[in-house]
Specification:
Elements lengths: L1 H19 L1 H17 L9 H24 L1 H7 L12 H19 L4 H19 L7 H19 L6 H24 L1 H6 L5 H5 L1 H24 L5 H24 L3 H17 L1 H5 L3
Helix pairs in contact: 2-3, 2-7, 3-5, 3-6, 5-6, 6-7, 7-8, 8-11, 8-13, 11-12, 12-13
Length: 289
Amino acid sequence: MLELRTRAMMNCCIGIIQLTYPLISLVAASYTLLGAYLGSDTSTFLTPLTVRTALVVGLIVSYSFAFNHYQDVVVDSVNNPARPIPSGRVSRKIAGIVALFLAISAIALASTLSLPLLMIALFNTTLSTLYSCYFKGRVLIGNTTIAFLDASIVVYGNLAVGVPTRAAWIVCLLTFSYVLAQEILYTVRDREGDLRGGLRTVATCFGTAVAIRLFSFCIMGFIAIALLVWFLGLAPDRYLYALVPCCVLPLVGIVSFLKKSGTIRTVRLSLRMINIVWVLSLLPAILLK
């Protein structure tokens, strides 16, 4: 009996960690530090202030995931039955408590920052909540909300060290277009569960083929904007040298891959590759400075 309880407790702890997506939160925190780097001297961007700012972002991102799990039990039972709540490893009540703790922690830590940073943290936490409760099931509104939240991260880090710079706004725009495309492709992967949950997404309303075409259009838009930054002389040559192998070539390959086969399997594989490209895109973003 004791062994079963211990195992159940361990599974619950692992499930709680999975609810918060620590790796994605770490990447978000890294983009916060990128914003600070783009707005300050290279040798001084890493300070207690910028670390706290990055931690605020990481906590808000973890909260948004935990609360989304709390809200999406019905949809996840179809799309992702192995997730902590549908699998029974974590109760919905515990997920709600974890989400609340993360939100309170984020706002408490943000209160040690400047007033503008606190207000933005409050706004983004509220918007994340509204996304899970209302916006997720509305065509493109939910996708745009997530794209906005992710795009704001670099500017948030930039604000911690001063006025937002041109480089930060460029990364903000690129992030918005990239995440919007990614979120549209997620609607293809989650179509079956979204239909059962009554969610109105691009894939449920217009079909898989249209959603994939819209994804491809947005990704090519991202590539066009990213290359235009260099053509307009807003970025040094080293930015282009990193952009092409880290982003342009892999994304063109993904678009071609999906054009040949738009099955759920290829969509899932493409999403994994897109997440890898997102991490690799840190390099050209760093080289903007």
